[in-house]
Amino acid sequence: MAEAPGIMTLYQLREARNLTQVSLAKVLQVNQGAVSRMEKRTDMYVSTLRNFIQAMGGQLQVKAVFPEGEVQIEQFENLAEPNNEDNQATQT
Question: What Rg do the C-alpha atoms of the chain give, in angstroms?
């Protein structure tokens, strides 16, 4: 794939990487319909988005952009699944 443009939807990104919903679904261990729904969502867990990007061979980075510069947010680097976070919070 050539250098990706700066702004794409998940659908456009998948297409640009020459992946089908079926092939991505196999990597994510979900069905094709789940990939289709993910591509249409406007709100999801950061961990879900991270898994989607990793399944395409990428790495998700979260950054905040301010007039004086950008800051990469690192707290999302090693996310646990949402249910695991809930369980860990109740165990402490």
Answer: 15
19-45 pLDDT per residue, tens = 999 999 999 999 999 999 999 999 999
Q: Domain for residue 3, yes or no? A: no
| b/e burial code for range 28-64 (CB count within 10 A of at least 16 → b) | bebeeeebeebbeeeeeeebebbbbeebbeeeeeeee
Encoded amino acid at 14, one letter: R
Domain CATH code at residue 37: 1.10.260
What range defines the domain where residue 63 resides? 10-91
